[in-house]
Amino acid sequence: MYGHQLRLLAEKEHVQIWTDISVGALYGAMKRLAAVHLIDEVRTEREGSYPERQVYAITDAGRSSLATLRLSGLSETVMKPDPFDLAMTRLDRTKLDDLPATIETRLATLRRQLAESIERTQTIKQYLTPVELFVMGHQANRIGAEVSWHEQLLSELSAIIADESARKDHHHD
């Protein structure tokens, strides 16, 4: 494929939902893949008066790398530390009164993200295979778990703030 074909396919496949690569970043990604020989330029085409365009194909090394990525994607569990957790364990004692509003704002953002995820899935549902639809639900479930955890945090927040306020040894600074 040449770059524009790949861009159209990425738009059709909603690449931004599945990866952290935007459609606009595909050309840069293609250059990086070519630089490390995971794809190679196989020919140059010209259509009418349009500029020449390079046609790329995956290499054997690219197929091998893709197989490795696919296997690791299916077998590895990725749960990254959330910077929020560290910030919560190192609260600024002088700003404890602001904490409920901060958590409420965060919870509202998560609820909005959950609604958007569900709405996006419903919007493209007709274009998804059963496995794609099932996987799209995974994101909503993860966000839903965050919403639930933050609701629990809000219910415990007064006790947390009281405990933080009462601490004499504040190693948090």
Fraction of residues in β-strands? 5-15%
Q: Give the domain tally.
A: 2
Class based on secondary structure composition and strand pairing:
mainly alpha
State the oligomer.
single chain
Compute the CA-based radius of gyration. Answer: 23 Å
- State the helix count: 7
Contiguous uncertain segments of 5+ residues: none
Widest sheet, order of strands: 1-2
Number of strands: 2
Distance between the termini: 55 Å
Helical fraction:
55-70%
* Shape label: elongated
Q: Main beta sheet: strand number and arrangement? A: 2 strands, antiparallel
Order of H and E elements: HHHEEHHHH
Structure keywords:
single chain; 173 residues; mainly alpha; Arc Repressor Mutant, subunit A; 64% helix; 8% strand
How would you describe this protein?
This protein is mainly alpha-helical. It has two domains: 3-75, Winged helix-like DNA-binding domain superfamily/Winged helix DNA-binding domain (Arc Repressor Mutant, subunit A), CATH 1.10.10.10; 83-166. The chain contains seven helices and two strands, in the order αααββαααα. Strands 1-2 form a two-stranded antiparallel sheet. A hairpin with a 7-residue loop joins strand 1 and strand 2 (53-58). Helix 6 packs antiparallel against helix 7 (130-166). The chain is elongated, with a radius of gyration of 23 Å.
